[in-house]
Write a structure and sequence with these properties.
The complex is a heterodimer of chains A (450) and B (967).
Chain A (H helix, E strand, L loop, with lengths): L1 E7 L16 H8 L1 H16 L3 E5 L10 H16 L4 E4 L19 E3 L6 E5 L7 E5 L24 E6 L14 H6 L4 E5 L5 E3 L4 E3 L15 E8 L5 E6 L3 E9 L14 H16 L3 H5 L15 E11 L8 H15 L5 E12 L5 H7 L1 H15 L1 H10 L4 E3 L13 E3 L1 H26 L1
Parallel strand pairs in A: 1-2, 2-3, 3-4, 6-7, 7-8, 8-10, 13-14, 14-15, 16-17
Antiparallel strand pairs in A: 1-11, 5-6, 9-10, 11-12
Helix pairs in contact in A: 2-3, 5-7, 8-9, 9-11
Chain B lengths: L1 E10 L2 E6 L6 E5 L6 H11 L17 E8 L2 E8 L5 E5 L7 H4 L5 H8 E3 H5 L11 H6 L3 H22 L7 H63 L1 H15 L3 H6 L5 H28 L5 H10 L1 H42 L8 H7 L7 H41 L4 H33 L1 H29 L5 H43 L7 H49 L13 H40 L12 H39 L5 H4 L12 H11 L4 H40 L2 H60 L4 E6 L8 E5 L4 E3 L5 H18 L6 E4 L7 H14 L5 E5 L2 H10 L4 E6 L2 E6 L3 H7 L5
Parallel strand pairs in B: 3-12, 3-13, 7-11, 11-12
Antiparallel strand pairs in B: 1-2, 1-4, 4-5, 5-6, 8-9, 9-10, 13-14
C-alpha cells in the first residue's frame, strides 16, 4: 500500500525578502510577496499532483513577522487544500511554536496540527482503513531541547510511517530538537519529513529529507526554494522529487579580481570595466536554465516549466587587482545602482542586492610575500597558529566587538537583529580578511619606504 | 668579514694611503685632530655600499677610489669602489662568488653605518623619531626592526579605524551607531507591527463587544419604541376608547332585537311619504276647487265624470279640430275655385261659338256629340280633304306644265327632224344599262330573297330595277339634251314620255276629284253637325273640333270636381254632426236645427273648452290617485312596523298620525342604532388602527389567548390602559421612555462610531505593511551594519595580529639583545647597573637602566657617560648578535668614560675583537696605553695627514705621534 504526498516546511510567511528597501514599487511588491507566492505555488503543486496529503514540518509563519494578512493568507491556502479534500498534517517549529503567543488561526478541518506535549499519531485517511501513519510533535516554545525523535515509535510497519519533525539535526545542539541522522535511522520510520534547515537536501544515513524553504529570504538562502513530492510504500525507500517553486532566486556571485578580465583579456582596472564585467555575468545568470539552477541540489528534480521571475544578486568583489584602487563605499553603491538600472525590469529580472568589496590591492602572491618578507612570513605563521589556538580565538571573538554575538554551534536565528552572528567559519573569514589587510598595509608601507 | 688590506687611493684627505695586513682583531689607529680618522671611518662605512651623491662626505681628489682585500669565512675577495659606482666584490684565489649584501649580512647602509661605525657624537645621539629610518633604535634592534617599527603604526591605524567605526568595544557608537539605531528602530517598529496581530484580536473582540452592545441597545430601544408606540397609541385613541366605553354602557340596557326588527330603513321613506301625502292631499283640494271654478255646470262632479268618461273622444275631437278647420276652409276655397273655373269655361264656350246662348252655353257644349266623330275621323276627314285637294292641285299644275312641254316638244321635233336617228342610237346605247340593271336586280333580289325572304327580295329587285331604269331614263334624257337641238330622236322620246305622263296625270286627276268629292261630303256633314258654316276650312273644322273637345273635356272635369267637392262637404258635415252630438251629450252645447258645418267654429270652441275642463278633471283625478297611492304606500310601509295599528281603512289623517308615531319611535331606534353603529365604528377604527403593521406589534405583548378574534387588540388596549391610573401616568411614562431612548440612542451612536473606528483600525491592523516596512528598516540597517561590523572586526583582529606580531618580533629581537646588553652594561659599570630594558612605547623608544638596587632609570636620567656606556653596551650586544661579523669602528667613543669604565669597556671591546675586526680611532694616547695594558693584543697604527704608519705591536709610536712628549 503506497501513498503520495507533498512535503514542505519553513514557509516563514510574512517574513520579507531582505533586499527590497531600494527596489521600485512594483519590484518591491514582487519581492515582498515572494514568500506568499511560493506557498501558493506549493499548494498548487499539491493540487496539480493530486497528492494524498500534505505534511508541513514547521515554521509556517514567523512570529517576528506575523501579521493578520499573513495569517489570513495561510488559512486561505489551507482552504484550497480543503476544497480539494486533501488533508494536511502540520507541526510547528521554533518560529511558530505552539503555546503562549501562538497565532489563533481559524484553520479548516482538513488541517491536523500536532500538539507540543507528546508525539501524536494520525492515520491517513482514517482510523478504519489506514493507508499511512503520520507522527509528529510541535514545538511548544522557541527552543526545544528535548530529542523529540526518540518517541516516534510506530506500532507496526504494515503501512508507511512518516515522521514529521522540526530539527536542526545537530545531536550536540540544545535548541532545536537535537538528534542526528543515525538517531533517526534507528526508528521504524519510513520517511522523516524534516523542517528547519532551509536548503532542500536528502540526509545521508536515514530516509530523511529537508524540504527547504519554498522561497529564500536572504543572501544566506541561495538554494532554489521548493517542496518535495514523496511516493512511498511501507518498508521501502521513498521516491523523492524536488519541485522548485521559488519565484525569486538569491545568488551570490563572487568575482575574483585576480582572474577576472575584460573582453580584451585585460584585468579589471576601473568601474567601467567592473560594470561591463558584472553585466556579462548578469546576462549569464538570466540565461541560466532550470538544470543549471538546480544542479547544486543533490536530489532528483521534477521536470517542470519552472523558471524564476527574477534573481536577487549580491556581487562580491574579492581577490587582488587594480580595481581595488577604484573601489570604495561610494563606488560600490554607484555600481549597485547602475546594475539595478540594467536588468531590474527584464524578465527574468536581476535585482542587485548589493555590491560588496572585499578586494585587495595588487600585490605579489602570498607565497612570494612570505618568502621575501620576514614580517609577513611571521604574520602568516602567527595567524595560522592563532586559528588553531582556542584561547586566542576566544580572545579574537572578544575583539570583534559587541556588535558580534558568538554562536558556537547553533544557528543565529535568535540573535538580536542589531548584532551579527559569529561562528567559527565567520571568525576564520574575519581573520583571513584581517591578515590580508595587514599584509596589504605592511607590504604597501614597505614598498612606499623603498 | 675582515679587512685584510685597505687602499685608500682617493678619498678625502687620503691619497694612496695603505693599510696593509690589518689584524683581524683589535686595531687601534691613533691620530691627532684632523689627521683623517673620521674620513677613514666614512671610507670604511661606504666601502661595501658605495658613495651616494651629495652626501656631505669628504670629496675625492679625482674620484673616489677604495680597494680592500677582505676575508669572508676564510675566503679572500677584493672589494673595490670607484667613484660613485657600486662596490664590486671579486673573489681572489678561487674564493666562491658571494653577493656583497650577503657579505654585509643584508644590512642596509644606514644600519651598517649606525651599528658598526660608532662616533662619539653618534654614540650620544638618542633615537628621535620612529619615522627616522636611521634611528638608533632601528639600527640597534636589527635588520627587520625597520619594518617591525612600522607595525605599531599600522596597528594604530587599524585601531583608529576600528575606533572610528565602533569605538573601543564595537558598540553602537560612531559609525555603528546609526545603522544599529536604525535596526533598533526597525525592531521597535516590528515589535509594534507584530503586536498588531494581538491588537487586531483585541480590537476584533472589542468590535464584537460593541456589536453585541449595539444589538442589546437596538433591542432595548426597540422594546422602548414599542412601548412608546403602544402608549402613544393609547393616548391618541384614549378619547375614542372612552366614547366606546360610554356607548357600550348605553347599549347595554337596550333591546337590540327590537331595534334590529324596527324598519329604520323606512323612516326616511315614511317621513317622505307623510310629507308627500300631505302635499298631494293639498294638491287634490286645489284641483277640485279649480275645476269647480272653471266649469259652469250645476253638477261639476257629474260633469267631471262625464268628461273623464269621454276623455278619449274629447282628446280625439281636439286632435281633429285642426283637420276639421282645414277641411272647412278647403271646402270653401275649392268651391270658390270651381265657380271660377266654370266662369272660364263659359267664357271659352262663348268665344268658341258666339252664337250660342249665354245661358245654355255650357249645355250646348255638353250637347255637342263629339262622340259621333272620333278625333281620328275628324282628323282623317279634314286631312283627306286637304291632301286630296293639295294633290289635285299638284296634278293639275303638272298636267299644265307637261302639256305645255308636250307642245314645245312637238314644235322642236318638227323643226329638227335630222337628229332623230342619233336620238334612237342613244336610246339603244342605254338598253344594255337597263338590261344589266334588270339582271343585277334579279340576281341581288334573288340572293336577298334566299337570305332575307321573298318580300325583301322582290322589293330590292324592284328598287334596283327602278333605280337603273331611272338612271337609264335620265341618261337617255341627258343624252338627248346633250344633243339639244340636234337629236330629234331624243325629242320624240321625250314627247312620248310626256304624253304618257300627261295621260297618267289626267287619270290621276280624275281619281282625285272623285276622292275629293267624297271627302267634301263628309266634311260638310261634319260642319253641319258641328254647327259650322259650310265654308269653314277643313283645318278650321279640325281646330274647332279640337277646341270644342277640349272645352267639353274641361267641363266634364269641372263637373266631376264639383261632384267630388259635394261629397267631401257632406262627409265633413257628417263628422261635425257626430262631434256636435257628443258635445251636446256632455251638456255644454245646444245643437238643435243647426248645420254643424256652418256652426263649426262654435263647435270647435266648445270642444276646446271641454278639453280644458277635461284637463282640470284629470288633474283632480290624478291628485286623487296620488293621494290614494301615497296612502297605500304608507300603509305598506307601516305594515313593516310590528307595532303599527290596523290601517286598512284609515284615512289620511290617521295615516299621518300613525306615521308620526312611527317616526317618533324610529328616531329612538335610530339613536340606538347610531350609538351601536358609532360603537361598532369606533371598534372597527380602533381595531384597524391598532392592527396596522406599525402599531400591532406594540400590543402583541398584551394579547390574550382568549381573544383570538379581531377584538384582541381592543382587549389588549384595555389591558394597557388598566396598567395605568390615568392619562397623566401614561404621559409620565412616555416622558421617561423618551429620555431613556435618547440616552440609549446616544450610547448606540457612540457605539456605532466606535465600531466604525474599530473597523478602520482593524483594516489597518490587518495589513502587513507595517511589519514589512519594519523588516525593511531592519534589513536596511543590517545591510549597512554588517560591512561596518566586518570592518570593525577585521581591524580589531588585524590590530591584535599586528600587536602579537610586533611583540613577537620585539621579544625575539630585543630579548637576547637586551640580555647581552645588560651583561655588557653591567660589566662596564662594574655592576652599578645590572640590566638594560626597553620601554614598550615604540613610538617613543627608550631604554631603561636598572640599578643594582633594582631602581630603574630612563636614559634621560643617566649621566652623559653612563648613557654613552648604555648605548655602547646595546650596540656591542647588537653587533655580537649579528650573524655577519663585520668590522666595527669606534671613533673616540670612549672619551667621556672615567678610567675604570674605560678599562672595562676596552675589555669588552677586546672580547668583541675575538669575533669582529675592531678599529679603535683615537687621539688620546691614554687610550692606547689602556689598550695595551688591559687587552690581550692589539695592532696599532698611526695616522697623520692621510697616511698610515704601522702596523705596530705596541702603542708607543702612535702615542709619540699624538703626544710627542709621550715617551
Amino acid at each position: 500500500m503506497g501513498v503520495t504526498f507533498l512535503h514542505t516546511a519553513d514557509f516563514h510567511l510574512g517574513s520579507p525578502l531582505r533586499a527590497v528597501e531600494a527596489a521600485s514599487e512594483s519590484l518591491a511588491e514582487r519581492l515582498q510577496r515572494a514568500t506568499h507566492e511560493a506557498l501558493r505555488r506549493v499548494i498548487q503543486v499539491a493540487l496539480d499532483e493530486d497528492v494524498d496529503f500534505v505534511v508541513v514540518a514547521g515554521d509556517l509563519y514567523d512570529q517576528q513577522a506575523r501579521s493578520v494578512y499573513a495569517n489570513e493568507f495561510l488559512v486561505d491556502q489551507f482552504e484550497r487544500l480543503e476544497d480539494a479534500e486533501i488533508p494536511c498534517y502540520v507541526v510547528h517549529g521554533n518560529h511558530d511554536p505552539l503555546g503562549a503567543g501562538a497565532e489563533k488561526l481559524p484553520l479548516p478541518n482538513n488541517v491536523h496540527v500536532f500538539g507540543a506535549d507528546d508525539v501524536e499519531t494520525v492515520l491517513y485517511p482514517n482510523d478504519d482503513e489506514p493507508e499511512a501513519r503520520i507522527m509528529g510533535q510541535s514545538y511548544g516554545s522557541q527552543w526545544e531541547s528535548n530529542s523529540l525523535y526518540y518517541h516516534y515509535t510506530p506500532p507496526d510497519t504494515a503501512i508507511p510511517n512518516i515522521g514529521l519533525l522540526h530539527t536542526g539535526l545537530n545531536p550536540d545542539g540544545r535548541r532545536y530538537a537535537p538528534c542526528g541522522p543515525s538517531d533517526l535511522a534507528q526508528k521504524e520510520i519510513d520517511y522523516w519529513a524534516l523542517g528547519h534547515i532551509h536548503t532542500p537536501r536528502l540526509v545521508d544515513g536515514a530516509p530523511t529529507a529537508y524540504a527547504g524553504i519554498p522561497q529564500g529570504r536572504n543572501i544566506g538562502e541561495t538554494a532554489i526554494g521548493g517542496c518535495l513530492l514523496v511516493d512511498m510504500d511501507a518498508g521501502s525507500d521513498p521516491d523523492i522529487e524536488f519541485v522548485p517553486t521559488s519565484p525569486i532566486v538569491w545568488q551570490e556571485i563572487v568575482v575574483d579580481l585576480s582572474t577576472a578580465s575584460t573582453d580584451d583579456d585585460t584585468p579589471l582596472r576601473n568601474l567601467a570595466d567592473a560594470e561591463g564585467y558584472l553585466e556579462e555575468r548578469m546576462l549569464d545568470l538570466r540565461a541560466a536554465d532550470q538544470d543549471s539552477l538546480t544542479d547544486t541540489l543533490s536530489m532528483p528534480v521534477a521536470e517542470t516549466d519552472w523558471m524564476p521571475e527574477g534573481f536577487v544578486c549580491r556581487w562580491t568583489l574579492s581577490g587582488r587587482g587594480e580595481l581595488f584602487e577604484a573601489l570604495d563605499e561610494e563606488a560600490t553603491d554607484m555600481l549597485a545602482n547602475r546594475l539595478r538600472d540594467r536588468s531590474s525590469s527584464a524578465s527574468p529580472f536581476v535585482w542587485t542586492e548589493s555590491v560588496r568589496d572585499y578586494s585587495a590591492p595588487p600585490l605579489p602572491d602570498l607565497e612570494t610575500l612570505v618568502e621575501s618578507d620576514e614580517i609577513i612570513s611571521e604574520l602568516v605563521e602567527l595567524s595560522n597558529e592563532i586559528r588553531e589556538d582556542d584561547a586566542t580565538r576566544a580572545e579574537l571573538r572578544a575583539k570583534t566587538g559587541d556588535v558580534w554575538e558568538w554562536r558556537a554551534d547553533e544557528e543565529h536565528e535568535d540573535i538580536s537583529e542589531d548584532r551579527i552572528g559569529l561562528d567559527e567559519k565567520r571568525l576564520d573569514d574575519l581573520i583571513d580578511r584581517a591578515v590580508t589587510r595587514s599584509i596589504d598595509e605592511l607590504a604597501t608601507r614597505r614598498d612606499n619606504a623603498n | 668579514m675582515q679587512i685584510k688590506n685597505l687602499d685608500l687611493d682617493d678619498f678625502g684627505c687620503f691619497r694612496r694611503a695603505r693599510l696593509q695586513n690589518v689584524d683581524s682583531g683589535l686595531t687601534v689607529i691613533a691620530g691627532p685632530q684632523r689627521a683623517g680618522k673620521t674620513t677613514f671611518m666614512e671610507a670604511v662605512r661606504h666601502l661595501g655600499y658605495g658613495i651616494p651623491r651629495g652626501n656631505g662626505l669628504p670629496p675625492a681628489t679625482d674620484q673616489y677610489d677604495l680597494t680592500a682585500d677582505v676575508v669572508v669565512d676564510g675566503a679572500e675577495y677584493e672589494l673595490a669602489l670607484t667613484g660613485y659606482g657600486d662596490p664590486a666584490l671579486a673573489p681572489v684565489n678561487g674564493a666562491p662568488d658571494r653577493a656583497l649584501s650577503d657579505v654585509f649580512g643584508n644590512l642596509g647602509p644606514a644600519q651598517y653605518q649606525q651599528l658598526f661605525t660608532i662616533s662619539l657624537d653618534e654614540l650620544r645621539r638618542m633615537p628621535t623619531s620612529l619615522d627616522d629610518d636611521v634611528s638608533l633604535s632601528a639600527i640597534l634592534l636589527g635588520a627587520a626592526y625597520g619594518d617591525v617599527l612600522k607595525i605599531p603604526q599600522i596597528q594604530a591605524a587599524f585601531s583608529d579605524r576600528a575606533k572610528s567605526i565602533g569605538g573601543k568595544h564595537g558598540r553602537s557608537v560612531y559609525d555603528l551607531k546609526e545603522p544599529i539605531s536604525e535596526i533598533q528602530s526597525g525592531v521597535d517598529a516590528r515589535d509594534a507591527a507584530v503586536a498588531q496581530v494581538d491588537e487586531h484580536d483585541q480590537k476584533e473582540a472589542a468590535r464584537d463587544d460593541v456589536n453585541s452592545r449595539v444589538a442589546e441597545l437596538d433591542e432595548e430601544i426597540a422594546d422602548l419604541t414599542t412601548e412608546q408606540t403602544r402608549l402613544n397609541t393609547v393616548l391618541t385613541e384614549y378619547g375614542e376608547f372612552e366614547t366606546l366605553q360610554e356607548l357600550n354602557l348605553e347599549l347595554d340596557g337596550a333591546d337590540l332585537d327590537q331595534i334590529d326588527a324596527f324598519p329604520t330603513e323606512q323612516l326616511d321613506r315614511g317621513r317622505q311619504l307623510q310629507s308627500q301625502l300631505e302635499e298631494v292631499q293639498e294638491g287634490l283640494t286645489t284641483a277640485e276647487e279649480e275645476f269647480a271654478q272653471q266649469v259652469t255646470v250645476e253638477d261639476p262632479e257629474a260633469y267631471r265624470d262625464r268628461l273623464l268618461d269621454a276623455t278619449s273622444t274629447i282628446r280625439a275631437y281636439n286632435r281633429e279640430i285642426a283637420g276639421w278647420r282645414e277641411r272647412v276652409n278647403s271646402l270653401q276655397e275649392q268651391r270658390s275655385e270651381l265657380a271660377k273655373e266654370r266662369r272660364k269655361l263659359r267664357s271659352r264656350a262663348a268665344d268658341l261659338q258666339p252664337g250660342w246662348d249665354d245661358d245654355s252655353l255650357l249645355d250646348r257644349v255638353r250637347d255637342v256629340e263629339t262622340d259621333l266623330f272620333s278625333r281620328d275621323e275628324v282628323r282623317s276627314i279634314t286631312r283627306t280633304c286637304e291632301d286630296v285637294r293639295s294633290e289635285l292641285n299638284e296634278v293639275e299644275r303638272n298636267l299644265t306644265e307637261k302639256t305645255a312641254r308636250h307642245e314645245q316638244l312637238e314644235h322642236e321635233i318638227d323643226t329638227a327632224t335630222d337628229s332623230s336617228s342619233e336620238a334612237s342610237l342613244s336610246l339603244r346605247d342605254q338598253l344594255p344599262v337597263a338590261a344589266g340593271g334588270t339582271v343585277l336586280a334579279l340576281i341581288v333580289g334573288s340572293a336577298l330573297g334566299v337570305v332575307g325572304g321573298a318580300i325583301l327580295g322582290v322589293v330590292i329587285t324592284l328598287v334596283i330595277i327602278l333605280t337603273v331604269g331611272a338612271y337609264a331614263a335620265s341618261r337617255l334624257e341627258f343624252e338627248s339634251l346633250e344633243v339639244d337641238g340636234v337629236s330629234v330622236e331624243t325629242l320624240r322620246a321625250d314627247k312620248r314620255s310626256l304624253t304618257a305622263d300627261i295621260e297618267g296625270l289626267r287619270s290621276r286627276k280624275t281619281e282625285l276629284e272623285t276622292e275629293y268629292s267624297t271627302a267634301t261630303e263628309q266634311l260638310d256633314s261634319l260642319r253641319e253637325k258641328l254647327g259650322l258654316s259650310d265654308d269653314t276650312s277643313p283645318a278650321a273644322v279640325r281646330e274647332f273640333y279640337a277646341d270644342l273637345s277640349s272645352l267639353r273635356n274641361d267641363l266634364t272635369t269641372l263637373e266631376g270636381d264639383v261632384e267630388a267637392l259635394d261629397m267631401k262637404e257632406e262627409t265633413l258635415r257628417s263628422d261635425l254632426a257626430a262631434a256636435a252630438e257628443t258635445v251636446s251629450e256632455l251638456g255644454v252645447l245646444d245643437t238643435d236645427n243647426s248645420d254643424p258645418l256652418e256652426d263649426a267654429e262654435k263647435l270647435f270652441a266648445t270642444i276646446e273648452s271641454i278639453e280644458e275642463d277635461l284637463d282640470l278633471a284629470q288633474t283632480v283625478t290624478t291628485a286623487q290617485q296620488t293621494v290614494s297611492s301615497r296612502k297605500d304606500d304608507l300603509r305598506d310601509l307601516l305594515a313593516e312596523w310590528n307595532d303599527a295599528p290596523d290601517l286598512t281603512n284609515a284615512d289620511s289623517a290617521t295615516l299621518v298620525r300613525t306615521v308620526d308615531q312611527f317616526l317618533e319611535r324610529g328616531e329612538n331606534v335610530t339613536e340606538l342604532v347610531e350609538a351601536r353603529e358609532q360603537r361598532d365604528g369606533i371598534r372597527v377604527r380602533l381595531q384597524r388602527r391598532l392592527t396596522v403593521s406599525a402599531i400591532e406589534p406594540a400590543f402583541e405583548p398584551y394579547r390574550d389567548s382568549e381573544h383570538d378574534d379581531d377584538d384582541w387588540a381592543i382587549a389588549a388596549f384595555e389591558r394597557v390602559i388598566e396598567a395605568y391610573t390615568d392619562r397623566e401616568a401614561i404621559e409620565e411614562r412616555l416622558d421617561t421612555i423618551d429620555e431613556t431612548i435618547e440616552s440609549l440612542e446616544t450610547e448606540r451612536s457612540e457605539c456605532v462610531e466606535e465600531r466604525v473606528e474599530l473597523t478602520k483600525e482593524l483594516e489597518e491592523l490587518a495589513s502587513d505593511d507595517d511589519v514589512r516596512e519594519a523588516h525593511a528598516t531592519i534589513e536596511a540597517g543590517r545591510r549597512r551594519l554588517e560591512p561596518l561590523a566586518e570592518e570593525y572586526a577585521t581591524h580589531r583582529i588585524a590590530e591584535y595580529l599586528l600587536n602579537e606580531l610586533h611583540e613577537r618580533f620585539i621579544d625575539r629581537t630585543t630579548g637576547p639583545l637586551l640580555d647581552e646588553a645588560s651583561e655588557i652594561f653591567a660589566r662596564i659599570t662594574d655592576n652599578a647597573y645590572t640590566k638594560v630594558d626597553s620601554t614598550e612605547e615604540f613610538d617613543n623608544l627608550d631604554f631603561q637602566s636598572v640599578l643594582a638596587d633594582g631602581q630603574t632609570q630612563q636614559t634621560a636620567e643617566l649621566s652623559r657617560a653612563t648613557a654613552e656606556q648604555l648605548f655602547l653596551a646595546i650596540r656591542l650586544a647588537r653587533i655580537r648578535r649579528h650573524e655577519s661579523s663585520l668590522p666595527v669602528l669606534l671613533d673616540d667613543s670612549l672619551t667621556n668614560f672615567d678610567p675604570s669604565h674605560h678599562v672595562r669597556t676596552l675589555q669588552t671591546i677586546s672580547e668583541l675583537a675575538d669575533t669582529n675586526q675592531v678599529f679603535l680611532l683615537t687621539c688620546h694616547p691614554e687610550l692606547l696605553e689602556r689598550v695595551d695594558t688591559h687587552t690581550d693584543s692589539a695592532q696599532y697604527w698611526s695616522l697623520d695627514d692621510g697616511q698610515f704608519n704601522g702596523p705596530y705591536s705596541k702603542p708607543d709610536d702612535p702615542c709619540e705621534l699624538l703626544e710627542p712628549t709621550w715617551s
